[in-house]
Design goal:
Helices cover 71% and strands 0% of the residues. By secondary structure, it is mainly α.
């Protein structure tokens, strides 16, 4: 008999949910800055599921999210391929992250097959190749250090998930030697210092990072809240989310963050309310986020246990928790 709770470390389910949360947010807007983190993250999620063995009865919600994520990129492989093209192409990325066995590393083959089926003239094929070559030339000419920066970000996220605060801070310090004003690195530095108990350093980094978001306070606090949630600081994530909500009460990204925090805390009703708001606010402007919010609401419904049937002659009473 498989004993999941004994075979896995206490924080393994928390790490799996964090990894799924990060991948769901990234797939909404994949680009050259996060594509490597996204692909490596999918590898990590697959490995974490494998650690649970064949009995995954305790992971129904997580498996549903994982299946939805894989189906999304399988049905629209250009989400990954277009972002990867600006980072050197999937062929190059596979060689840098061998063995790269996951199907997400080979979506360029699916795109090529579809293109071959629809293109009927050789001129269109040659034109497509020329465009790819031009994009590759422009990328290698103007963005020679992107891969190194993205690899560093991946390292920071992995160390933060493992709660190795000093090592993660050291990785941030190294990256800032070449990117001293990078907003993402500054926010990571602030959040990691908060976890390490360095309040003064955290506030300094937070203030410096905020200067990159003049006129966009909700974007800033949403980023801070997301990173705080990644490291397990749910109180800090909620505080940042509430600040973002005060600045932009109609922002779907903000309500999605607050829903994620509420879900992580086990506040199912509150999380469902925030995800419901996200669906409405996302609308046609951000349909991908709306789809993710719907999936999360469906997962929440599976975690709500039905009330027991009353005994004959008794009246059922339901109590609603605010």
């Amino acid at each position: 008999m498989t004993q999941i709770t004994e075979a896995q470390p206490p924080n393994s389910l928390h790490a799996l949910r964090n990894a799924l949360e990060q991948a769901e947010r990234q797939v909404v807007r994949l680009d050259r800055t996060n594509i490597i983190t996204f692909l490596v993250g999918l590898d990590r999620i697959e490995e974490m599921f494998a650690q649970y063995g064949p009995d995954k009865s305790a992971l129904r919600s997580e498996e549903s999210r994982w299946e939805s994520l894989r189906q999304r990129i399988a049905t629209n492989p250009r989400l990954v391929v277009d972002a990867a093209a600006n980072a050197g192409g999937l062929t190059k990325l596979r060689s840098q992250h061998a063995p790269a066995l996951g199907p997400w590393w080979h979506l360029d083959s699916a795109v090529t097959q579809r293109r071959t089926q629809t293109l009927t003239r050789a001129g269109l094929i040659i034109g497509a190749i020329a465009v790819v070559a031009l994009v590759w030339w422009g990328f290698t000419t103007f963005f020679p250090t992107t891969n190194a920066v993205t690899d560093t970000t991946t390292t920071i996220e992995q160390l933060a998930t493992a709660q190795q605060w000093p090592a993660a801070l050291a990785a941030v310090a190294t990256a800032r030697q070449t990117q001293p004003d990078d907003a993402e690195l500054l926010v990571w530095e602030a959040v990691l210092n908060e976890q390490a108990g360095n309040a003064a350093q955290a506030q300094t980094s937070l203030t410096q990072a905020q200067q990159n978001f003049v006129g966009q306070p909700a974007v800033f606090w949403t980023l801070v809240g997301t990173r705080r949630q990644q490291v397990g600081n749910l109180d800090g994530a909620d505080q940042a989310g509430q600040q973002a909500l005060a600045d932009a009460p109609q922002d779907a990204q903000v309500t999605f963050l607050l829903g994620s925090v509420a879900e992580a805390r086990g506040n199912i009703v509150q999380a469902a309310d925030y995800f419901s708001q996200t669906i409405v606010l996302a609308g046609d402007a951000n349909p991908e986020l709306g789809v993710i919010a719907r999936v999360r609401m469906g997962n929440l419904s599976q975690r709500i246990e039905p009330l027991p049937n009353p005994a004959p002659g008794q009246t059922s009473t339901q109590t609603t928790t605010p």
